[in-house]
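User: C-alpha cells for both sequences below?

Assistant:
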Amino acid sequence: MNGAESLVNTLADQGVEVCFANPGTSEMHFLAALENPRMKSVLCLFEGVATGAADGWYRMRDTPASTLLHLGPGLANGLANIHNAKRASSGMVNIIGEHATAHLKYDAPLTSDIEGLARPLSHWVRRADSSASIAQDTASAVAKASEHPGQIATLILPGDTSWGDAGQPPKTARAAIQRKAPDQARVDHVAQVLRAGEPTLIIFGGKAMRGRALDLAGRVAAKTGARLATQFFSARIERGAGRVPLERIPYAVLQAVAFLKGFKNIVTVETGEPIAFFSYPDKPSLLKSPEAVVHSLATTDEDSVRGLEMLLDALGGPAVAPRVQARVDNGVPTGKLEPISIAHALASAMPEHCILVDESLTTGRESMGLTAGALPHDTIQNMGGSIGYGTPVATGAALACPDRRVFCMVGDGSAMYTIQSLWTQAREGLNVTTIIFANHSYQILKTEFANMGFGAPGPQALAMIDIDKPRIDWVAMGTSMGVPSHRVTTAEDFHKSMVNSVREAGPVLIEVAL
C-alpha cells in the first residue's frame, strides 16, 4: 500500500465519506487511490467550489468532508470559501498536494509556501513527511476537523509521501467528539438575570439554532419572557411552522441599534455580542446600548444543549411548553417581482424540509422575515462575508442530503465567482434549484456607497458597480453547463417555476429578471 492509499483508507476509517477534488499532476497517486469504494469523489472545476461544497456538507451532516487541492495556487484559489467555512465553524480536511521533497530545491514554477498560505485560515497544519506515518497524520487531521466547534485541518502531501511504501498500517480508532458543559456558576448567574425580569435578549449561534437546543430555548423564553434572536448571518437555522422562532438582528447599523436599544441584558449562546459587519463614519461598531450587560451562557466550544438544560433546572424546571411559529401562507403572489413578492412566492413554494441557502444580499433582505411561517425548513447563510459561497455550499448540502430539495438564492454578482458549481450539480444529478436575482449590478455596493456618506455614485464609481455591459445571459450560462434554465419576469411565474423544479430530478436554474 502506498502513502496515498493509506491516506484514503484512513479517511474512510475515520468516517470521511466524500472528497471534493480539483487535482493536478502532484496528486495523481491520490487520484488513483480514490478508486476506493468507501470514498465518494466529486470533481469541482474550481477550488473555491470544492472548499465551499465541503462547508455545505458539514453544515448538514456535522461531519467533515475532505478536499483535494493542487499545490499552493490551488489552495489559494480555495481560501475565500475556507474563510467562510472557518467563520461558520465548519470542519473540513484539506489535502494539499506538494512537490516531492527532492524536487523542492529546484524551485519549480509551482513551488510556494503552502504552510504560509494555509496557517491563517487553518486550526491545524501538518506536512506529511513519511509514507509510514501518513495514516496517523490523517487520523489526527480528521480528529481536529471533528472537534466542536468544527475546525479547519490542512494536511500537505508531498509526492514522495504519496507514492512511497506505507506498509500495512493498522486501523486507527475514531476520536470521540467531546463537548464540555458550561460552568454552573455562570449558568446560575444567567438564571438570576432572567429572574430579575429586566428586558433580556438571548442571542443564539453555532449548533444552538436547531434540534433540542432550539426547543429548550423556546421553553426558556416561555418561562421568562426573554426574547430570542440570531445574528444577521447564521450557519444553519431550523425554522418554519411548528418550530421556535428566532428574531434576526438587522444588518444596517442604525436599525440594529434601534432593535437592541431597549434590552438591559444580552445573553449569548455559542456566539458573541452583536457587532457591525463594517465600520462606518460616525456609527458604532458595538450595536448594543452602552448600558446593556452581556452575559455568556455557553461559549462557542461548549455544549449549548447541556447549558440550556442546566438553565431550565436553575429556573425551576422545564415543564413549560415552548412558543412555536404558526403556519403563515400569504398565497401565490402576482405581478411585479420585488423583495416582498419574491419572499411570498418563496414561502409558498418551499416544500417541507427543504434547505434554503441564502446569498441573495439586497434582493433577499425580506426573505427571512416573510418565510418564518413557511413549512419547516433549514436556512444556511454566509458567516464569513466572502461572496461566491452560495452555489458551492448548496452543492455540498445537496450531496449531504440527497432526499431534500435545496433552494439556492444568489445575486448575479456573487454567482459569477463560483458559477462552475452548476457543472458539478449537473454531473452529480443534484436536487438544487439555483435562483439568480439578475439586477445586473452589485446592488449592495450602491447601498454601502451611500452608507459611507457619498450619496449616489458618480459615473466612474457606477462603472465599477454595474455589471450590465455586457449583460450576462444566465439561461445560456446554466444551459451550457447541463442545467435546465429559464427566465421569469412575474411573481406568479417565479412561484410556478419553483414548484415545478421540486417535481424534477436534478438541478434547475431560474433567472429572476429584475
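Moving on to the next sequence.
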Amino acid sequence: MRNGGQLLVESLIALGASKSFGVPGESYLAVLDALHDAQGTLDFVLCRNEGGASFMAAAYGKLTGTPGLCFVTRGPGATNASIGVHTAMQDSAPMLLFIGQVGTDMIGREAFQEIDYRAMFGTVAKWATQIDQVERIPEILARAWTVATTGRPGPVVIALPEDMLTSLSAVAPLTAPANISAPAPQIAAIDEAHKLLQAAQKPVILMGGTNWSDEGRAALEAFALNSDIPVVAAFRYMDQFDNASSAFVGEAGVGMLPHVKALLRDADLIVAINVRFGEMTTDGYTLLDVPVPQQKLIHVHPSDAEIGKIYVPTLGIHACPSSFAKALKPVEGQWGAWRSAARDAYLASFDAPAQPSPVDMVTVMEYLRNRLPEDVVLTNGAGNFTVWPNKFFKFGPKARLLAPQSGAMGYGVPAAVAAKVAEPQRMVVCFAGDGDFQMNCQELGSAMQAGAQPIILILNNGIYGTIRAHQEKHYPGRVSGTTMENPDFVALAKSYNFHAERVEKTEDFEAAFERAAASLTGAVLDLNISPEALTPRQTLSQMRAAAFAAKETV
C-alpha cells in the first residue's frame, strides 16, 4: 500500500525524472514526504518564489527535452507559477506543474485558497487536469508525460487534492514512459517538397522549436549547405542551427534585421520547419499574408494542429523536424547569390559602432564570442539588453540559448540556475537588465542552496529600457515610471555567496570576467551601462530627437 504522494513520486522516477523545482506548501505535504525518500534519485530544488520555480522548470524542459517538474501550493502558489506555464507554452517546452489542491470534500465551496485549475489554466497550458482518485495517478501521469513531450511539446498542469494524496492504494506505480514513434514524412510528401524546391528561384528555410535531435540538426545543415539555401532561425531559436555555417543568415525575431525581413518577404518559397509562426517571427504577421501567403509555403510540424493554423500551406507535412530533415536530398538551383548576399548581411550586422557607455557592450560581446566555451549556455529575460546575447553572439552546434518567446522579464536568472542544475559542468552565462534581474534576484538563494551558481551579467542602466524606448518614440521627453533607483547589486550578490564585482569601464571587463569564470560559487558582474546606449545603433537622445522631429512635420 502506498499513499498518493508516494505513488506520484515513484511513477515520476519511473518516467525518468531526476530533478524538480518548487516552493513547499501544506497542500502537498504527502509529496514532500515522498521526496524525502527519493533524494539522490529525484531531487527537489528549493526555490524562493513560485514564479522562479516555474521558470526553472520551463527552462529545464527546454534545455533537456524532458519535462521540467514544478511543485507549488494552491491559490497564491499557483497564480505565482502561472508565468512559467505561459512561457513554457509559447516556448513549446515540456513541463509538468503540480499544484496542491483543497480536499475533494471542499471543492466548489471557495474553500481557503481554492481555484478551479482547469478553468484557470485551460487556455494557457497544453492540458490542465485534476486527479481526484488516488488509483488514477499512474494513468493520468502517463498521459500528462506523453502530452507534454509529443506533437508540439508544452506544459501540463495537474491539481492534486490534499485528501487524494494521503489516501492509500494498492495500485502499482508506473514502470516506464510510453514508447511513441514520432511522425515521419510520407515519401510522396518529400517528393512534392523536392519539386517545389527545384522550381523555386528564391527559397528560404525557416526553422526553430525545441524537439530537434542532434542528427536532425546536422542533416538540415548538410541539406542547406549542399543545396545552397539560406537558413533563418525563428525568434530565439538561433541556437538550433550552427551560426558558423555559411547557410545561416540570421534570426527572425524582435529587432529583426532588414536583410532578414527582405529575405522572408521576397522569397518565393519558404520551408518552415517546426515553427508556429509567432508574431515576432513574422514581424507582426506582415511578412506573409494571412491566411494565404504570396510565397509558396511548405510547413512541417510534429503537431497537425499547427499546420494551417494561421497560414494555408502549399504543402503541409505532419512530421517531426529531424525525420523530415533526414529525408531531404540536395537540390540544385540558381540561388547561390541570394544565399551569399544574405550571409554577408548577417556577418556585417556584427559591425556596430562604439557605444556611448562606460562599458561598451560591442567590445564585451566581441570578447565573449572568442572566450566562451563551445558548449556554453546563455540565458536572458526580457528587455532591450537582450539584443546583445540574441544578435551579437554566434551559437555553435553545442551552445544553447534559454530565452523566453513569451517576452517574460525575470526568466534569465532562474533559467541559468536550472541549466546549472541540469548540467553543472557547463558554463552558464545569464544576461540580465537591472529591472529584469530584480524580478527574480531572490533565486540567487536557490542557486546558493543547490550549488548551482551561474555567471550573471547585469546590464545596469537604471531604466526599464524597452518601455523607455517606446516612451521616447511616442511621448518624447515625458519620462514616466521608467527610471529606477537600484540597490547595491555587488553587496546583494555577495550576501548569497556569489563572487561579485562592479565593472565601471570597458577595459576592466575582461579581467573581471576571468575572475568570475574562476569562481567556484558563481559570479555577478554589475556593468555600468549608460541609458544613452539603449540600442546598438541609436542612442536615447537620437531616439527622442527623431520623435520630436516627426511630431513637428505632422
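User: Anything stand out in the second?

Assistant: The two ends are 77 Å apart (CA to CA).
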